[in-house]
């Protein structure tokens, strides 16, 4: 069966050569004009011949090129790589990097489907599509200790799992479903583990088990000079530090990652709550209070947000809602007690529905229920790190709700709004300079988002981007947030160095100078040399 998204995708692929409505060339594509002129057919053949049978070079005339060139966010579909290596091995990644350097082309890795919000996994140079590197190797460890949380027995540090750079969050799901093996990742099944871990990695178990980057034991990196190094606690520890929060495409091409995993047995508490926008003030007040009171309670996970979708004003009003979702590693009656202030809000119908949503599920079911993805097409975000001093006031929440009703609309069913992911627990036990991920005193990561489709007219894109700025501005008027999340990059952010990396930025520059002194891996918000 072909659904609407497939039709849209097929239409988009067809449109790729002709240029999409509203699609723009990515700023990551910025490179010396005419640099391609020197790369002739003989050079491309040299690359194709040098690759092993595990990898393939695609040029724009190849039939496989369009789907591989297209980034997840079609906003940046106007940037076409000169060539794409579908990379199947570390050795071929190394060959590709060396070749790109030798002919003066930039090389940019993409894992997953290319989810970067700012289009930083697009290039007019050589795109290294890592999706073929799908190996997953599990190495159990004996003697790991277990602990019970409600109906769940967790064996901590039960072993390691080594994944290739092309593995996505969703690829790890069968391990959880079939064997109870769990690595904390993000919400979206198609996000690549590579981009996720390199920028941090928040999800619905991070307070309990740490960010994805906190679980990293080692990573294999192809450097700009073609060397392949293994970065871990005892080797290239400075690079290892940078690969835990320093964001992708800054130091090299990471071809594999080894994580410590947890072994699950039993069930976890789950909830999913929803109200009309009328309840926005009490819900946000209660949710923020719960998150603050439970900052050190690593078992409780929460995402709260507001959203709407539709094209016409009445649809946007009717769909406007407040929502919360999460899970709890503990007994169900404790979860109900934590949620009590939220469960008391709303109409009788909302309260009954919300109460009924609180239940125990298997970790595999929880992972499916908690997963969500933005429909392919076009979207943008602006994020903020909220601490106990900068939680949203009633005025800010009220302003956000008002602006939400003024959203200009689009055909994208994902619509617009904001989401707040509660942090704390294990995440905040790690000192801010222990890894490159600096945001270790956060209560929430906040993300304002808007989305539209390929077939919306250009004025819809312009109106959505304008609205996003106004929405964010109305919430943070006068008090612009100091930090934002590097995995939700905002190309319009001026002081992104401090916002993404804070006091860690200077150290990241030192790592960059050591491992990529010529700045071969670069993009507009890349670490400088
Ligand atoms: C729908 C959606 C849901 C999301 N949900 C979450 C979430 O729940 N939690 C969360 O923390 N984040 C989330 N994100 C953000 C996500 O973590 C980042 O967009 C992440 O960078 C995506 O990684 P990727 O490999 O899929 O994307 P890509 O676009 O391929 O890569 C992102 C960046 O990393 C670089 N890169 C990619 N592969 C490599 C590699 N092998 N070696 C070196 N550099 C590389 C790219 O060049 C690019 O600069 C979400 C994003 C979207 C669009």
UniProtKB/TrEMBL annotation:
One of its GO terms (molecular function) is FAD binding. SUPFAM superfamilies: FAD-binding/transporter-associated domain-like. Residues 77-264 form the FAD-binding PCMH-type domain. Its cofactor is FAD. Signal peptide: none annotated. It comes from the Bacteria. Keywords: FAD, Flavoprotein, Oxidoreductase. It holds the Pfam family FAD_binding_4. The keyword Membrane does not apply. Belongs to the oxygen-dependent FAD-linked oxidoreductase family. This is FAD-binding oxidoreductase. It comes from Streptomyces adustus.
